[in-house]
Amino acid sequence: MRHPPFVRISDTYSSQQPEPRHAWSIFWLVLLIALAIIGMWLGLGLRRIQSAYPGISPNVPLAADKSYGVNADLTQLSSQELDRTLAHMSSLGLRWIRHPFNWDEIEPARGEFDWDPWDRVVEGASTHGLKLIAVLDTTPAWARPPGTSPLTPPTELADFGYFSRALAEHYGDRINYYQIWDEPNLSAHWGDQFVAPSRLRTFVARGSHQPANCRR
C-alpha cells in the first residue's frame, strides 16, 4: 500500500503568506482609500454648512478686526532702523502696533513736551500701512508723590487728563486707538497700591475726556 508524499504543514503555511513588501503596499492602498473617503465626507459636510450659512456681506462691518499685531517700543531706534523694522513688520502681515506713549518721557516738566521720538513712530507706521494703539502710561516725577515709581498714578488726575488731551490734539486721527494705562488691574502697575475700582474709573474718565476750557 502506497502512502501519499509527506508534506510539512509549516512549509505549506509559509508558502501561503504574502511577501512583506506586498503587505505594505496593500496597507498603504487601503489607507489612501480611507483618507479619500474621509476627505470627501468632510468636503460634503463643509459644503452643506456653507450653503446653510452663506456668510456675512462684505458691506457689513465686523465686530472686531482679527488682523495680527505686536507690542513694541520703537522710540530708541534710529530713523534707518525704524524704517527697516516697520517694513519688516508689514512684510510679515502685521497690521497693528501697540506702542507705549510714556507720559514721563513726553512731558518730563510740566507743560514742556518732547514729541519727536513718537512723531517718527507715528509717521513711519502710517508710511508702512500699520495702525497704532497708543498706550498712555507712566507718570512724570513732578506729577506723582516723591520717591514713587513712574508706574504710580498721578497725585492730581486732572494732570493726566491735560496730557491725554494734548496728545490727542497733537496726533489727531493719525492714532487709531488709545489705551488708558497699562495693566491697571495689577498693583505693581498702580504704585504698589491696592487698585480701587472707583479711582480707576475716575482715572480713565479723566484720561478719555478733559474739557477744553480747563487749564492748569
Can you describe what's shown?
45% of the residues lie in helices and 11% in strands. Helix 3 links the parallel strand 1 and strand 2. With 216 residues, it is an alpha/beta fold. The protein folds into two domains: 44 residues; 141 residues, Glycosidases (TIM Barrel, Alpha-Beta Barrel), CATH 3.20.20. The protein has seven helices and four strands. The protein has a four-stranded parallel sheet.
Ordered list of secondary-structure elements with their pairings:
Layout: H1 9-16, H2 20-52, E1 68-71, H3 79-91, E2 94-102, H4 103-106, H5 116-127, E3 131-137, H6 157-171, E4 177-180, H7 197-208
Parallel strand pairs: 1-2, 2-3, 3-4
Globally, the shape reads elongated
Poorly predicted residue ranges:
none
Strands of the biggest beta sheet: in what spatial order?
1-2-3-4
Measured between the Cα atoms of the first and last residue, the distance is 129 Å
The top-level CATH class of the largest domain is Alpha Beta
Proportion of β residues?
A: 5-15%
Write down the overall mean pLDDT: 82
Q: What is the helix tally?
A: 7
